[in-house]
Amino acid sequence: MDSLHHAKPTIRDADEPSSKSSSQSEGGQIHYALIDYPDQYVQPLIMHALQSAGTMQFSFITSLSQMRSPADPVLQFTGYESLDFEHSMQHPKTSLVCAYVIRKALIRKHYLSHTVSTWLVKHPDSILSSHFKPCVHFELDYAEFLDDALVDAWDLKESLTRNEGAEASQKDWWILKPGMSDAGNGIRLFSSMEELQAIFEEWEDGEAASDSVVPEEDATTSADDTASERLDNAMTSQLRHFIAQPYIDPPFLIESYGNRKFHIRTYVLAVGALRVYVYKEMLALFAAQPYQPGFRTAGSENVDLAQHLTNTCFQAESTRASSVRRFWALNVPGLRPDWQTTIFDQICEVTGEVFEAAAREQMVHFQTLPNAFELFGVDFLVDNDTNVWLLELNAYPDFRQTGQELQDVVVGGLFEEVAKIAVSPFFSHQQQRSDRMPLVRSIDLGRA
Known about the structure:
- This protein is an alpha+beta fold.
- It has twelve helices and 17 strands.
- Helices cover about 25% and strands about 20% of the residues.
């Protein structure tokens, strides 16, 4: 297959006469598409997917003002800030947008924790109870107020108290994450109150590594957005929201891949109000350095984060090329043949459950629309018992980390499925099924 990123898509002037075969339905109605994705890695893949959809062809425009009538069918597939949500609200039967207006309940780390904990109060037997680590959420402006910020963090304080008298190898370790940082920035490991205090003092002194912060306003792209403002010094007062979560150890390691820790990047498609699909083609993203379980015997200042952080944004080009693999192509001799299927089945169930939790219990912070769809990058970690743990969800995920070699087969195939499952059915009113992107949850929210 020729690499799609070399193709230069043509955008036809919407004022040109269009033949029925190119952009009109049998009734003579034009279908418009405004495609301006904020990543040139992705843009040609979307264009190709729409042009190859088969059921209809689009008249590509650069502005909604080029439409002959505001009521004509139109797809907006652009950056979040460029979407004309007002137009989509005024024309809910003919205007389709590529994002929901509000989805904090899923894409903000501290909101996600609250979403899960609220759901578990009513559904204690939910699969989320055994596939998501409970988080401690706190707000902190300055390091000196850490004790006050943790006044209600009973589980965390109890764990750190136990650690004071424990052998080094028996200590509980926690992972600290800024609630709105991107690409794994600001993540630290700690096992004592002193270590946690030192982390915040380090940031406050301006000695931390460069960290990205996503503004709190929901009208932004997500935690994977490379357009986020990058700060030279991540100050505690600029981060504010934090979660602390029990560290998952030991992770599932594969000797043939250098015993490097990895997480699974899954692409999830939410359609309307609400169907949830999981793209079967997943990525395994490996850390730069082999995992060393002996980190538990050292203080946090001696922990090499390159062994623990699997986000490829941190890696040099020399290791990044070998750090992105197709999940289904992983070779693990000696493991039962169905290990990948078992992991995928867990991912599907957990994904469906967390979307239902957000849709039913967090309606203020996750507002679905019948004429919207959205792609999410969802990260999972697999432990040594091949149990799957949900880590986080990202809107407008960073597809570029997939690389050029897998661009067409993974990301290109993903947008072909989006065109088939989310776009074509909206305009043709004919649902389609796909083996590459199975439906994992259908939820009637009364907004059809």
